[in-house]
Amino acid sequence: MSTNSTFLKEMGITEWTSRDAAPEPNQAILAAEVSNDQAATETYERHSLGIWWFFGNKPQGDAEVLFQNAIRVLGLTPQEWSWKNPADKLNPELLPQDGTPIVALAFGGAAAQKLSGERDALPELRETVLAINADGAEDLPLIATFELNQLLSRPKDKALFWQDLLLAKSVLQNI
Who wins on pLDDT, 6 or 157? Predict the structure, then answer.
């Protein structure tokens, strides 16, 4: 214990320690046990609310970091989301047969137009629940949003992107 710690303790002041500092071995073991207990509890309580399909150009660099942060905030596991190419034909046989709901998010106006068959620009397609224009997938909701690279160049649009994510989440919960 340092001299400063002794003085602080005598004055009845608790010493603050940096969270960045390495914890003492006993604290590390206790923290590991607590986190293992929490993880075990979460695995039993966690159940999937549905599947998210993301259409558009697969992000790279800072756009990928932004996307991964969005995935983390939404609390999605790798089994609950996937990237799809808007140009690929959707195979209705690949849809979940157990009735798991799906929501699709189109990044960019071109992807939204291709998937929905709409001709409007992205500002008109946003904040609207569209339908995928494909045989066997007409009932799948589609939400149009910004391209991730656009969000990097115009950070103020991130709030609108968040609104789109919340709309998609709400749609998924109400299917």
Answer: 157
